[in-house]
Design goal:
The chain is an alpha/beta fold. 46% of the residues lie in helices and 14% in strands. The chain has helices spanning 3-22, 37-51, 66-95, 106-138, 145-151, 153-169, 175-187, 234-239; strands spanning 190-191, 196-197, 202-204, 210-211, 216-217, 222-224, 228-230, 248-249, 254-255, 260-262, 266-267, 272-273, 278-279, 287-293, 296-301.
């Protein structure tokens, strides 16, 4: 390396060192302990192995080794999850000027969340089984439930969301968002961990779906690619973060590709929202909303038979 090259590289390094001092909030240098993104992603995949053994990784399970292998994985996940929760809760406390070590109940709180999560997994498998069943019923191209678990991005996104949502509900910061944004990067499906989702959700194709934090999706709902359940005004939302800003989708609703539903509106039970519709008001049960032509939206209510 020539003298000029060395000077140029040193200049670049010096500029980076200055940048680290000027923008400390977008780095992790020193003794501020938070879990690495990669460790959370690996933990998420291990949890998925417990939910779908033999279908997530190339691992051989049989009736003889299953209790032993699942036992090992469960214990490992418990300690890793407990450590990660402790780190992020202490990190959050430090941002608020507190010290988690000064709270005598802190360790019990962390351990309780980890235990509750593992105890929730059988119920989560039941819920995910209903999601798989909804896809099998709703997608004529699906061949089997195992194919859906192995190959369908919608099911993968929903399974990770349900893991993240459990932790989000218990006040665990950072980890749920890392989980959902990781699966977002893999599937193109963006679901905030704060969303409330019922049973039997079918996401078909999925690419480009965005579901905002305060959205509520009830049971047996079907969403296609490019659907947005969003908020109307970013400025208003930032000023009032506790307000419900996103839609409520009632039971047995279908929202077709490219539809955008914005604001705290209600899509009534049994309604169908056509492709590319832009909807900013509530609609009653059993409505049909679709584009009549290039310039207008038609809305009708189907009479009960």
């Amino acid at each position: 390396m020539s003298t000029d090259q060395g000077k140029r590289l040193q200049k670049a390094i010096d500029a980076l060192m200055v940048s680290y001092k000027e923008h400390p909030d977008i780095e992790h240098i020193g003794d501020m302990h938070i879990p690495a993104k990669e460790s959370i992603i690996n933990l998420t995949e291990e949890i998925q192995v417990l939910l779908f053994p033999g279908l997530i990784r190339q691992e051989s399970f049989d009736n003889l080794n299953l209790p032993h292998l699942i036992g090992q994985k469960t214990v490992s996940i418990f300690y890793r999850l407990k450590e990660a929760i402790e780190l992020v809760l202490c990190w959050k406390a430090s941002l608020e000027g507190e010290r988690c070590q000064e709270n005598p109940e802190f360790g019990e709180q962390v351990e309780s969340i980890a235990y509750e999560f593992l105890e929730y997994l059988p119920t989560l498998r039941e819920v995910l089984s209903e999601d798989v069943e909804a896809i099998l019923r709703g997608d004529p191209a699906s061949v089997s439930k195992r194919e859906i678990v192995l190959a369908y991005p919608g099911l993968q996104a929903v399974s990770v969301f349900r893991i993240a949502h459990f932790l989000h509900q218990r006040g665990v910061p950072l980890i749920p968002r890392i989980m959902t944004e990781h699966i977002h990067s893999k599937t193109g499906i963006d679901i905030h961990p704060g969303v409330s989702i019922g049973r039997g959700l079918m996401i078909d194709h999925g690419t480009g779906i965005v579901i905002g934090e305060t959205a509520i999706i009830k049971d047996q709902v079907r969403l296609y690619q490019g659907v947005t359940l969003g908020a109307l005004s970013p400025q208003h939302s930032l000023a009032n973060p506790d307000l419900k800003r996103h839609p409520t989708i009632e039971n047995n609703v279908i929202v077709y590709a490219g539809a955008t539903i914005l604001g705290d509106v209600v899509v009534g039970e049994g309604s169908i929202i056509g492709g590319n519709v832009w909807l900013t008001h509530s609609i009653p049960p059993r409505s049909r909303v679709f584009l009549k032509d290039a310039d207008s939206v038609q809305e009708e209510r189907v009479k009960a038979s």
